[in-house]
């Protein structure tokens, strides 16, 4: 029997954001860039749980959004904490903080960890106006994670290929500068790290990325299914977390395609589809759960 699946990268919003979408478009420019299009879905708690049931996903790691406004971060962190409590362990969550606010961001991180957040993320350099290559700008947030032994999930961008809303400029060179500045910080890089795994063929890059993991969020918008095999062969099956980016991708369909079309070997599947996420985000095992 396969182990219970964890979707390591999903997003959910509180009812204030879903209902107040229009008003937020102008106040939060990055939110506006992604969600001005009314077809861009905003999922709430019940939507996420329904998608998990449909896909047979046991646990989801839910992120909010990389808000600029620290008050919005705080309010949506409370939404995530409550959803997690109601979910009885099925929904883990990552807190959003705005690194531009320095010590205030670190305080919010500590508050969120006390409320049960499994880490921070998905933070976004372009969306939140911070420079990944400037360690001083990120030190309060990075140190808050290291102190609490929690990981940080960062959005990552491909330096080439097609443009899309939300792509940004968090490219492998900047990501490597960031992880090099904080070697004790566990970092998960979304969207296959913008291509950074391929540079782990360089021994010095692999050494610098010893505390880095990659997730598969939004994979089908970016790469052919062969990306799974290519990255697993370079960085090994312990460093890749399966995540959909739900609701960007449909969870059930992406899970099916990841299992059937991506060339994942049977001996890699438990790690990729849940074990790695449980370890990196320190998620509790749930006893007695059928899978
Ligand atoms: Zn992202």
TrEMBL record:
A Pfam family recorded for this sequence: Amidohydro_2
PANTHER family in alphabetical order: 2-AMINO-3-CARBOXYLMUCONATE-6-SEMIALDEHYDE DECARBOXYLASE, ISO-OROTATE DECARBOXYLASE (EUROFUNG)
Domain Amidohydrolase-related: 6-282
Protein source organism: uncultured Thermomicrobiales bacterium
Lineage start: Bacteria, Pseudomonadati, Thermomicrobiota, Thermomicrobia, Thermomicrobiales
Keyword line: Hydrolase, Lyase
Any GO BP: secondary metabolic process
UniProt protein name: Predicted metal-dependent hydrolase of the TIM-barrel fold
Domain of life: Bacteria
InterPro entries in UniProt: ACMSD (IPR032465), Amidohydro-rel (IPR006680), Metal_Hydrolase (IPR032466)
